Amino acid sequence: MQLLTGMQPRLFELTEAQQLVRDTARNYAQKTLAPIAGQLDRERRFPAEQLAGLAELGMMGVNIAEEYGGAQAGAVAYALAMMEIAQGCASTAVTMAVNNLVAETIARHGTEAQKRRYVPEITSGRYVAASFGLSEPHAGSDAAALRTTARRDGNEYVINGSKQWITSGDRAGVIIVWARTGVEGNRGISCFLVEGGTKGLHVGRHEDKMGLRASSTVSLSFEDLRVPASAMLGPEGRGFPIALAALDSGRVGIACQAIGIGTAALDSAVRYAKDRHTFGQPIANYQAIRFALADVATELDAARLLALRAAALKEAGKSFTREGAMAKVFATEKANKACDTAVQVHGGYGYIDEFPAERHYRDARITTIYEGSSEIMRIVIGRYLLESRPPKAAWRL
Questions:
Q1: In this structure, is residue 87 part of a structural domain?
Q2: Do the domain assignments include residue 178?
Q3: Of the candidates 275, 315, 304, which has an alpha carbon nearest to the alpha carbon of residue 104?
Q4: Of 120, 257, 277, 280, whose Cβ has the fewest other Cβ atoms within 10 Å?
């Protein structure tokens, strides 16, 4: 994404590669995902076939180097792709998001052997899913309070504990698991690469979720699960910084997912407003409807710019923690508003599954909670604002 200056107002212009990724994702989302998203949701059916199709298109490693099977198109291209896929099917999008996040984390922090062992399995689709094992039943936002342990035993580590809210935990070929190897607090946390099906790994029940019902969310437990010492990702005791870096990236992805859901809801509301007649005319003619839709369109556009700014900073190798938090809190809250407005525009039909508005409403709700709640995002932003000295022009594009 290039910032153009000169006689014209400053504009964001996509590169040819970014446009290609966006258009490829858009085509797949609208032709393949959107027509079956409602059915997948009703049946709670994991979209394995659709995820395989995305892998063939390079969507499981958009920001991964070609030598590991990725598209090497960059963080901005990934953000654009996520917006498009989420418009088609939010459940498919969240699985794609976690796959990309895990692949990026291994590619960034893993040894060469780890990268070659696991990243191509994710990007190619041979692993239909990968998982991010950080949250625990008592440790969500306070990740440093995790209790899962990893004890050194010769050339192995023995892992015991449990994880909660693990996307694709029952489907994952590889799971990044954070566990305590040392003292209390974040300095005693390490992370490990655990393969699905490893002895001692137990999958809990599928959560009956409000939304994203075609994605799989389970608990995991570890009972004397053994992994070789070579399965440690990064240095011992340095797992917490790896988690924070991954969460920064994940928040940009969830912001984009929310934008996609909100955009789909807006599109649905616009179509309905044109088709629905009351008192002899389309409800789109009424100022109340037009103003509501105009507000949503404006807010989603602002969210899109915030998300692309964060992605562009990431792609440039610059810090984007604050910008990612801003993008996530704004995009997810405005997406929820967009879905609420869409339901209201649909009236009674917005409350039943005959129209997609109610599914978008349910799918959007989680975005203000996972990958860092809105409250945590405001803590992050406030810390940068009040506890540090922002660089000159930090608030400008």
A1: yes
A2: yes
A3: 315
A4: 280
Considering the entire predicted model, what is its pTM?
A: 0.94
Q: What is the predicted pLDDT for the residue at 339?
A: 98
Q: Which letter does DSSP use for residue 29 in this model?
A: I
Residues 194, 160 contacting (CB under 8 angstroms): no
Say how far apart CA 324 and CA 108 lie, in whole Å. 18
Strand (E) or helix (H) holding 93:
helix 90-109
The one catalytic residue in 121, 236, 371, 375 is 371
Calpha distance 247→146 (Å, rounded): 16
Bridge partners of residue 228, in order along the sequence? 156
* Secondary structure of residue 307 in the 3-state scheme: helix
Q: How far apart are CA 271 and CA 265, in angstroms?
A: 10
Total structural domains within the chain: 3
User: Do the domain assignments include residue 68?
Assistant: yes
Find the CATH number of the domain harbouring 107. Answer: 1.10.540.10
**Residue-number span of the structural domain to which 308 is assigned:** 241-386
Whether residue 259 sits in one domain with residue 233: no
Which of 104, 71, 78, 91 shows the shortest CA–CA distance to 25?
78
pLDDT one-digit tens code per residue, 44-60: 999 999 999 999 999 99
Question: Does 371 participate in catalysis according to the annotation?
Answer: yes
